[in-house]
């Protein structure tokens, strides 16, 4: 018995040594993001986290994200080393999360006073991590602030890792003051690799910086194998519409609300579930009352991923009436469309450039004229009455997104880029 226990101990030690040796050979990658889960069951967008999870078998991942009250300064989550940098006392760490930095600045101009400390705190944290770990590459999500701070930190560091920057849309389209434009151009020209999440964004960068290096289209993935999948045992509610997203101007929700009276006139059972929160919520709630829609429109707040899946599976269709905001910001891709399609929910969305990466009109979804409530009502009413068309859309849409937006595809694309950068570093 003692001999058997000794053999098991030796086997365990060998396993630990092998794992340590394996990890020591991995390239160390530092990931910078302003959106990352703060705690278990956080409803913050998790695409950066999901990408990291899928890269951890090939790379040693270190994640740097902003701190917020209630979150740990440092922790290990499923093999990811997560650091959260402090930039103010707890009650002032309010710039990130819950709608994002731009929304916080727009909602309260006094928040601009916190911004320099947000930048400084992240910059100092990057320098410390570059000293502490043998980082071969940095993946900076968003041009500002992560992209520029990675470049400036590298300038003053002995460690000179390669830098990959990914733009998700709002940073490219929405920051249009002269200083931001100058910073964006500098980042695009000086990072070692640049990715965007749609072909529309690739075209935008080519126009914005004609001398930019190769810009690769590499959208974030969606879990279309285990999470966002159909469930035939769940019965769809024939007149339930669904909107998912932050309640900000570029989502265009007001146009869907303005279309509701016409839809209800033909189908009084129609209701609209709104999953999400944001700075426009109070204005939208007032609009719901003005349009006498309180018995038909329901604000669900921020939902867990599983609760969101349940909404996608029950809805008759998901509607995304995207528009271009006054400051130029527009949707970079729209992962919510892909999630809905993965769950077998028909999708209607505005005909803006990035949406065309996902919706082939009449084949994978239905395109709307942007900022046109009448067209929204017409398209919804038409799809209500055409069951064969809905079924055909659902089948073709799921096949399309699985072939183009599953996490396996995104992981392989980013892994190849990072490997090339770290090998050349």
Explain this structure.
This is Glycosyltransferase family 4 protein. The chain crosses the membrane at residues 110-130. This protein has 425 residues and is α/β, with parallel strands linked by helices. It has 2 domains: 25-221 and 407-423, Glycogen Phosphorylase B (Rossmann fold); 240-405, Rossmann fold (3-Layer(aba) Sandwich), CATH 3.40.50. The chain has 15 helices and 14 strands. The protein has helices at residues 2-24, 47-55, 101-107, 115-132, 143-155, 170-174, 178-190, 199-208, 253-266, 281-290, 305-314, 335-342, 373-384, 387-405, 407-424; strands at 27-32, 59-66, 74-77, 80-85, 135-141, 162-167, 193-196, 215-217, 240-244, 271-275, 297-301, 317-320, 347-350, 366-368. It has an 8-stranded mixed beta sheet, with helices on both faces. Helix 8 (199-208) links the parallel strand 7 and strand 8 (215-217). Helix 5 crosses helix 7 and helix 9 crosses helix 13 (373-384). The longest helix is centred in the first third of the chain and has 23 residues, at 2-24. The protein is globular and about 70 Å long. The N and C termini lie far apart (52 Å). The model is unreliable at 15-22 (pLDDT under 50).
Short synopsis of the structure:
One of its GO terms (molecular function) is glycosyltransferase activity. The chain has 425 residues and is an alpha/beta fold.
